[in-house]
Amino acid sequence: QVQLVESGGGLVQAGGSLRLSCAASGVIFSITAMAWYRQCPGKQRELVAHIGSGGRTNYPDSVKGRFTISRDNAQSTVYLQMNSLKPEDTATYYCAVDPHGLIQRVGAWGQGTQVTVSS
Length: 119
Fold this sequence. Notes:
The chain is built from no helices and eleven strands. The protein has 119 residues and is mainly β. Strands 2, 4, 5, 6, 9, 10 and 11 form a seven-stranded mixed β-sheet that branches.
């Protein structure tokens, strides 16, 4: 019943910006922690941002200072603002219901949206 629908992916030049959106349904969004993950071919899916129900955020060093996760509870939507993009950010990006910022505890995944950063 839980459904996550991502949008906003695309092609961008290095140094550019992109904003991803994830619309959630089938959850009580205001009490649901959310996250963004990404996956490159041949690599494991990795956490890029996490936001708790109270708005607390967490980022790995690889994106800290460049990416910002936010949420709009009125719209049941989580966002990922990506600035200063690098070619190594190229990946499929997935929205997730994630209580603890641990992939083992993810309860639902979006379908993914492709982000390609050209050099």
